[in-house]
Design brief:
The chain is an all-alpha fold and 421 residues long. It has two domains: 212 residues, MFS general substrate transporter like domains (Growth Hormone, Chain: A, Up-down Bundle), CATH 1.20.1250.20; 193 residues, Growth Hormone, Chain: A, CATH 1.20.1250.20. Helix 1 packs antiparallel against helix 7 and helix 4 runs antiparallel to helix 5.
């Protein structure tokens, strides 16, 4: 591939990762928004927003791999973008009828699209250039994703929650509106999502067209690698131990990272901090993640191989996790923040090692790795159970086995090439 085509391809992929962040991170605002706008009675109902979105990764990723085996990565990406646009358009009838079930269907549809797009984008980033610099490219993509994560809630709040809407939400929260007046106010409030999601759908359709005719090569690992000596002599995806172990490693990584980010506000409040101070800690962690990405971009592969970077990051993560438990709570919270630096490069280290040499099994292997993202939900629930049992500080013991396993994968697990497990 010529350098110009390579750069343009990276721009396309960076745009995809920006879209992932834009669509995913806005869910943090949708949870409290829908709780008011759809007049939900319990927190459990409001958190169905994230459940409906992320369950699609578990349910739809294997079908996504089968689809990509037929279409190839590029055409599959176009299909994923169009499905994402369809999910955005479903916000229109959902808002007009103020039907929470339709909103959940829209979110599930968007999650399905991202399951397809993640299965497209991650192997594309790995395949598109030299194998030894794959972690560096993934770090660049991570910067785009996290930047979108910073602006997504701000953009949504600016476009949807206008000053009069904030006043309406306050009145409803205070119980000052009831009956027909409340219903009319809720109808007006929820329709605020229609314009931005229609615009998003239009932009996604336009981007699908641009993506289709971009410089990205039309790769189909299930077809194009049939002549490769690797990935063709094994009859099952489960004949690749390093992939299966990599799926577990990625599950441990995203789960432990989610624990450090999603619990830190509550942990800070448990230490006596008010909400205004506590809400800043995720931003501190995000800043550390961005620092880690930049370190990866600079050092990999010029100064560090991606395997060495993965080992350094997993060991650093284990040390910081032990310090979280060893230090008093008010000091330990800063070690949670610092975990953002090693966490930033672990994903980029695991992915290329796990799909290396899969040949015609690349799409399915990528799908299994995408399914591991359900660790975001499961590990957070486990932390909640342990926090109830042991307290919020002691519950961070869950981080230690995660990092121990990731060290095992960095040192030995990724080298297990034969079906010996």
């Amino acid at each position: 591939m010529k350098r110009k085509e390579y750069i343009l391809s990276l721009v396309m992929l960076a745009s995809l990762f920006f879209i992932f962040g834009l669509v995913s991170w806005v869910n943090s605002i949708l949870v409290p928004y829908f709780k008011v706008a759809c007049d939900l009675k319990t927190g459990f109902q409001s958190y169905l927003v994230t459940f409906a979105f992320y369950i699609a990764y578990l349910v739809m990723t294997i079908p996504a791999a089968l689809l990509l085996n037929r279409t190839g990565l590029k055409k599959g990406g176009v299909i994923g973008l169009l499905i994402l646009a369809l999910g955005a358009m479903l916000f229109w009838p959902a808002a007009l009828t103020r039907t929470y079930g339709l909103f959940l269907l829209a979110l599930f549809t968007m999650g399905t699209a991202l399951a397809i797009l993640q299965t497209v984008a991650n192997p594309f980033v790995t395949i598109i250039g030299p194998e030894e610099s794959a972690a560096r490219r993934i770090s660049v993509m991570g910067v785009c994703n996290k930047f979108a994560g910073i602006i997504a809630p701000l953009v949504f709040a600016a476009l949807v929650i206008r000053p009069q809407d904030k006043a309406t939400m306050d009145l409803i929260g205070q119980g000052s509106l009831a009956g027909q007046a409340k219903e009319a106010a809720l109808d007006e409030l929820v329709r605020g999502v229609i314009p931005p999601y229609i615009v998003l759908a239009i932009l996604l359709v336009v981007f699908a067209f641009v993506f289709r005719y971009s410089a990205l090569p039309d790769i189909n690992p299930g077809r194009d690698n049939l002549s490769s000596s690797e990935g063709t002599d094994r009859k099952s995806i489960f004949s690749y131990p390093y992939l299966i172990l990599g799926v577990v490693a990625l599950f441990a990584h995203v789960g432990s990272q989610q624990i450090t980010i999603s619990t830190i506000i509550s942990y800070a409040q448990s230490l006596g901090m008010d909400l205004d101070a506590a809400k800043l800690f995720p931003s501190y962690t995000l800043g550390c993640i961005l620092v880690g990405y930049l370190i990866g971009i600079i050092t990999i592969p010029k100064y560090l191989s991606q395997q060495t970077a993965l080992l350094i990051c997993t060991i650093t993560g284990l040390v910081l996790s032990i310090l979280v438990l060893a230090f008093p709570p008010r000091a330990s919270i800063w070690f949670l923040v610092l975990l953002g630096i090693p966490n930033s490069l672990i994903y980029a280290g695991i992915w290329p090692l796990a799909i290396k040499g899969l040949g015609r099994w690349t799409n399915l292997g990528s799908s299994l790795l995408v399914m591991a993202l359900c660790g975001n939900a499961i590990m957070s629930l486990l932390y909640g159970l342990e926090a109830d049992r042991l307290g919020e500080h002691a519950a961070y013991w869950l981080l230690i086995p995660c990092f121990v396993y990731m060290i095992f994968y960095a040192v030995y697990g990724h080298k297990i090439r034969k079906d010996t497990i």
